[in-house]
Amino acid sequence: MGTVLAVGSVVCHDSAMHISTPSRTTRALGAAFAFTLLTQLAPAASEPAAAAVSWQAGPIHSDAWCAARVQHRQEIRPMNRPFNRAGAQPRARVWPFRRVTGNFTGTTGEILQWAACKWGFNLRALRAQAVVESYWTQTNLGDWTTDASHCAPFHGIGQDGRPGECPESVGMLQVRAPYVPLRVARGATRSTAYNLDAYLAIWRSCWRGEETWLNQAERGRDYAAGDEWGCIGRWFTGRWYTPAGIDYTNRVQAYYRQQIWLTPWFRNWRP
Asked: Is the pLDDT confidence value at 30 over 50?
Protein backbone atom coordinates (compact mmCIF):
# COMPACT_ATOMS: atom_id res chain seq x y z
CA MET A 1 0.00 0.00 0.00
CA GLY A 2 1.04 3.61 -0.54
CA THR A 3 1.38 6.23 2.15
CA VAL A 4 -2.14 6.96 3.32
CA LEU A 5 -2.67 8.33 6.79
CA ALA A 6 -5.94 8.10 8.72
CA VAL A 7 -6.48 11.16 10.94
CA GLY A 8 -9.83 11.07 12.68
CA SER A 9 -12.33 10.44 9.92
CA VAL A 10 -10.12 11.67 7.07
CA VAL A 11 -7.60 9.65 5.09
CA CYS A 12 -4.79 11.93 4.01
CA HIS A 13 -1.32 11.68 2.57
CA ASP A 14 1.84 11.57 4.64
CA SER A 15 4.48 13.04 2.34
CA ALA A 16 7.32 12.22 4.73
CA MET A 17 6.75 8.47 4.71
CA HIS A 18 9.33 6.48 2.78
CA ILE A 19 8.03 3.86 0.35
CA SER A 20 10.13 0.71 0.37
CA THR A 21 9.81 0.02 -3.36
CA PRO A 22 12.01 -3.09 -3.68
CA SER A 23 10.17 -4.91 -0.90
CA ARG A 24 6.75 -3.97 -2.30
CA THR A 25 7.47 -5.16 -5.83
CA THR A 26 9.31 -8.42 -5.14
CA ARG A 27 8.28 -9.73 -1.74
CA ALA A 28 5.54 -12.13 -2.89
CA LEU A 29 6.91 -13.62 -6.09
CA GLY A 30 8.67 -16.51 -4.40
CA ALA A 31 10.93 -17.35 -7.36
CA ALA A 32 13.33 -15.57 -9.68
CA PHE A 33 11.43 -16.96 -12.66
CA ALA A 34 8.24 -15.19 -11.69
CA PHE A 35 9.97 -11.85 -11.22
CA THR A 36 11.75 -12.16 -14.57
CA LEU A 37 8.50 -13.01 -16.30
CA LEU A 38 6.75 -10.03 -14.78
CA THR A 39 9.43 -7.52 -15.70
CA GLN A 40 9.55 -8.80 -19.26
CA LEU A 41 5.81 -8.42 -19.69
CA ALA A 42 5.43 -5.00 -18.08
CA PRO A 43 5.56 -1.87 -20.30
CA ALA A 44 8.16 0.77 -19.56
CA ALA A 45 7.40 3.03 -16.62
CA SER A 46 7.34 6.08 -18.88
CA GLU A 47 4.31 4.78 -20.77
CA PRO A 48 0.84 5.98 -19.69
CA ALA A 49 -0.64 3.51 -17.22
CA ALA A 50 -4.01 3.39 -18.98
CA ALA A 51 -2.58 2.61 -22.42
CA ALA A 52 -2.50 -1.19 -22.20
CA VAL A 53 -6.00 -2.11 -21.04
CA SER A 54 -9.12 -0.27 -19.96
CA TRP A 55 -12.23 -0.98 -17.93
CA GLN A 56 -14.96 1.03 -16.27
CA ALA A 57 -16.06 0.88 -12.66
CA GLY A 58 -19.52 -0.49 -12.07
CA PRO A 59 -22.18 0.17 -9.42
CA ILE A 60 -21.69 -0.82 -5.80
CA HIS A 61 -23.77 -3.66 -4.34
CA SER A 62 -24.65 -5.07 -0.93
CA ASP A 63 -22.75 -7.87 0.77
CA ALA A 64 -25.67 -10.25 0.35
CA TRP A 65 -26.33 -9.40 -3.30
CA CYS A 66 -22.74 -10.19 -4.21
CA ALA A 67 -22.52 -13.29 -2.00
CA ALA A 68 -25.46 -14.77 -3.88
CA ARG A 69 -23.65 -14.36 -7.20
CA VAL A 70 -20.26 -15.83 -6.32
CA GLN A 71 -19.27 -18.84 -8.41
CA HIS A 72 -17.60 -21.76 -6.66
CA ARG A 73 -13.82 -21.96 -6.90
CA GLN A 74 -11.47 -24.49 -5.35
CA GLU A 75 -9.01 -23.27 -2.76
CA ILE A 76 -5.52 -22.88 -4.25
CA ARG A 77 -4.02 -21.11 -1.22
CA PRO A 78 -4.58 -23.45 1.75
CA MET A 79 -2.59 -21.15 4.04
CA ASN A 80 -5.43 -18.60 3.69
CA ARG A 81 -8.12 -20.84 5.14
CA PRO A 82 -8.14 -19.48 8.74
CA PHE A 83 -8.34 -15.92 7.42
CA ASN A 84 -10.93 -16.81 4.78
CA ARG A 85 -13.16 -18.25 7.49
CA ALA A 86 -12.83 -15.19 9.73
CA GLY A 87 -15.35 -13.20 7.71
CA ALA A 88 -16.98 -10.11 9.20
CA GLN A 89 -15.03 -7.90 11.60
CA PRO A 90 -15.98 -4.84 13.69
CA ARG A 91 -16.79 -1.89 11.47
CA ALA A 92 -15.03 1.49 11.45
CA ARG A 93 -17.67 4.21 11.21
CA VAL A 94 -15.37 6.68 9.49
CA TRP A 95 -14.89 7.71 5.87
CA PRO A 96 -14.20 5.90 3.59
CA PHE A 97 -14.63 2.66 5.55
CA ARG A 98 -18.31 2.86 6.56
CA ARG A 99 -19.33 0.07 4.14
CA VAL A 100 -16.38 -2.18 5.02
CA THR A 101 -17.57 -5.34 6.76
CA GLY A 102 -15.61 -8.37 5.51
CA ASN A 103 -18.95 -10.16 5.72
CA PHE A 104 -18.19 -13.11 3.48
CA THR A 105 -16.47 -16.47 3.86
CA GLY A 106 -15.30 -18.82 1.14
CA THR A 107 -12.21 -19.78 -0.82
CA THR A 108 -9.66 -17.20 -1.87
CA GLY A 109 -11.03 -17.10 -5.42
CA GLU A 110 -14.58 -16.69 -4.12
CA ILE A 111 -13.62 -13.84 -1.80
CA LEU A 112 -12.00 -12.01 -4.71
CA GLN A 113 -15.28 -12.29 -6.63
CA TRP A 114 -17.33 -11.00 -3.71
CA ALA A 115 -15.10 -8.00 -3.04
CA ALA A 116 -14.90 -6.93 -6.69
CA CYS A 117 -18.69 -7.19 -7.01
CA LYS A 118 -19.31 -5.15 -3.84
CA TRP A 119 -17.26 -2.18 -4.99
CA GLY A 120 -17.84 -2.25 -8.77
CA PHE A 121 -14.22 -3.21 -9.39
CA ASN A 122 -13.06 -5.28 -12.34
CA LEU A 123 -12.50 -8.84 -11.10
CA ARG A 124 -9.66 -9.52 -13.50
CA ALA A 125 -7.90 -6.34 -12.36
CA LEU A 126 -8.36 -7.29 -8.70
CA ARG A 127 -6.95 -10.75 -9.32
CA ALA A 128 -3.94 -9.18 -11.06
CA GLN A 129 -3.32 -6.61 -8.34
CA ALA A 130 -3.50 -9.31 -5.67
CA VAL A 131 -0.80 -11.21 -7.57
CA VAL A 132 1.50 -8.18 -7.45
CA GLU A 133 0.78 -7.44 -3.79
CA SER A 134 0.85 -10.89 -2.23
CA TYR A 135 0.60 -13.68 -4.79
CA TRP A 136 -2.87 -14.21 -3.31
CA THR A 137 -1.61 -14.92 0.22
CA GLN A 138 -3.30 -13.36 3.24
CA THR A 139 -0.28 -14.45 5.30
CA ASN A 140 2.01 -12.11 3.36
CA LEU A 141 3.81 -9.42 5.36
CA GLY A 142 5.68 -6.40 4.03
CA ASP A 143 7.05 -2.90 4.55
CA TRP A 144 9.23 -3.91 7.47
CA THR A 145 10.10 -1.30 10.08
CA THR A 146 12.01 -0.94 13.33
CA ASP A 147 9.38 1.48 14.70
CA ALA A 148 7.25 -0.46 17.16
CA SER A 149 4.45 2.10 16.89
CA HIS A 150 4.02 1.20 13.20
CA CYS A 151 3.68 -2.57 13.61
CA ALA A 152 0.64 -4.24 12.12
CA PRO A 153 -1.72 -5.62 14.79
CA PHE A 154 -0.63 -8.97 16.24
CA HIS A 155 2.81 -8.61 14.61
CA GLY A 156 5.07 -6.95 17.13
CA ILE A 157 8.79 -6.37 16.89
CA GLY A 158 10.63 -9.65 16.32
CA GLN A 159 7.51 -11.85 16.24
CA ASP A 160 7.82 -12.85 12.59
CA GLY A 161 11.40 -14.08 12.41
CA ARG A 162 13.13 -10.76 11.78
CA PRO A 163 14.86 -9.55 14.97
CA GLY A 164 14.25 -5.89 15.69
CA GLU A 165 11.65 -5.51 12.93
CA CYS A 166 7.94 -5.84 12.33
CA PRO A 167 5.70 -5.52 9.26
CA GLU A 168 3.55 -2.49 8.57
CA SER A 169 1.62 -4.12 5.70
CA VAL A 170 -0.48 -7.27 5.84
CA GLY A 171 -2.64 -9.52 3.74
CA MET A 172 -3.82 -9.98 0.19
CA LEU A 173 -3.70 -6.29 -0.72
CA GLN A 174 -1.07 -5.30 1.87
CA VAL A 175 -3.16 -2.87 3.90
CA ARG A 176 -0.62 -0.67 5.66
CA ALA A 177 -1.51 -0.52 9.34
CA PRO A 178 -0.13 2.89 10.43
CA TYR A 179 -2.20 4.72 7.83
CA VAL A 180 -5.68 3.35 8.46
CA PRO A 181 -7.77 3.36 11.66
CA LEU A 182 -6.73 0.69 14.17
CA ARG A 183 -10.04 -1.14 13.80
CA VAL A 184 -9.47 -1.38 10.04
CA ALA A 185 -5.89 -2.58 10.52
CA ARG A 186 -7.05 -5.31 12.90
CA GLY A 187 -9.79 -6.48 10.58
CA ALA A 188 -7.48 -6.45 7.57
CA THR A 189 -5.02 -8.63 9.50
CA ARG A 190 -7.59 -11.17 10.70
CA SER A 191 -9.82 -11.55 7.64
CA THR A 192 -9.12 -11.95 3.93
CA ALA A 193 -12.52 -10.54 3.00
CA TYR A 194 -12.01 -7.52 5.25
CA ASN A 195 -8.55 -6.90 3.81
CA LEU A 196 -9.93 -6.68 0.27
CA ASP A 197 -12.98 -4.73 1.45
CA ALA A 198 -10.80 -2.08 3.09
CA TYR A 199 -8.56 -1.66 0.06
CA LEU A 200 -11.50 -1.29 -2.29
CA ALA A 201 -13.16 1.31 -0.06
CA ILE A 202 -10.05 3.48 -0.47
CA TRP A 203 -9.91 2.77 -4.20
CA ARG A 204 -13.57 3.71 -4.68
CA SER A 205 -13.11 6.96 -2.77
CA CYS A 206 -10.19 7.81 -5.04
CA TRP A 207 -12.23 6.91 -8.14
CA ARG A 208 -15.13 9.12 -7.00
CA GLY A 209 -12.80 12.12 -6.86
CA GLU A 210 -12.81 12.51 -3.08
CA GLU A 211 -9.02 12.54 -2.62
CA THR A 212 -8.45 16.13 -3.71
CA TRP A 213 -5.32 16.28 -1.56
CA LEU A 214 -3.56 14.42 -4.38
CA ASN A 215 -3.41 17.74 -6.22
CA GLN A 216 -1.43 19.24 -3.31
CA ALA A 217 1.39 16.68 -3.61
CA GLU A 218 3.91 15.60 -6.23
CA ARG A 219 2.04 14.36 -9.31
CA GLY A 220 2.48 13.62 -12.98
CA ARG A 221 -0.88 15.13 -13.91
CA ASP A 222 -3.82 16.70 -12.10
CA TYR A 223 -5.98 14.32 -10.12
CA ALA A 224 -9.57 13.90 -11.26
CA ALA A 225 -12.41 11.47 -10.66
CA GLY A 226 -13.13 8.43 -12.80
CA ASP A 227 -9.61 7.09 -13.38
CA GLU A 228 -9.66 3.38 -12.55
CA TRP A 229 -6.00 2.65 -13.23
CA GLY A 230 -4.77 5.90 -11.75
CA CYS A 231 -6.33 4.94 -8.42
CA ILE A 232 -4.62 1.55 -8.58
CA GLY A 233 -1.26 3.31 -8.95
CA ARG A 234 -2.13 5.70 -6.13
CA TRP A 235 -2.50 2.69 -3.79
CA PHE A 236 1.20 1.97 -4.17
CA THR A 237 2.65 5.47 -4.03
CA GLY A 238 0.13 7.76 -2.37
CA ARG A 239 0.78 10.01 -5.39
CA TRP A 240 -0.92 10.61 -8.72
CA TYR A 241 0.78 9.35 -11.89
CA THR A 242 4.33 9.52 -10.60
CA PRO A 243 6.87 7.17 -12.24
CA ALA A 244 6.71 4.64 -9.37
CA GLY A 245 2.92 4.54 -9.53
CA ILE A 246 2.93 4.12 -13.31
CA ASP A 247 5.44 1.28 -13.02
CA TYR A 248 3.28 -0.43 -10.40
CA THR A 249 0.16 -0.08 -12.56
CA ASN A 250 2.02 -1.46 -15.56
CA ARG A 251 2.96 -4.51 -13.50
CA VAL A 252 -0.67 -5.05 -12.55
CA GLN A 253 -1.63 -4.68 -16.22
CA ALA A 254 0.99 -7.23 -17.22
CA TYR A 255 -0.68 -9.82 -15.01
CA TYR A 256 -4.09 -8.62 -16.17
CA ARG A 257 -3.12 -9.53 -19.72
CA GLN A 258 -1.33 -12.73 -18.78
CA GLN A 259 -3.96 -14.05 -16.32
CA ILE A 260 -1.28 -16.01 -14.49
CA TRP A 261 -3.86 -17.31 -11.98
CA LEU A 262 -5.07 -19.71 -14.68
CA THR A 263 -1.69 -21.45 -14.95
CA PRO A 264 -0.76 -24.65 -13.05
CA TRP A 265 2.44 -22.98 -11.88
CA PHE A 266 0.52 -20.23 -10.07
CA ARG A 267 -2.14 -22.54 -8.70
CA ASN A 268 0.44 -24.91 -7.24
CA TRP A 269 2.77 -22.22 -5.89
CA ARG A 270 3.52 -22.25 -2.15
CA PRO A 271 5.53 -19.69 -0.15
From this structure: no
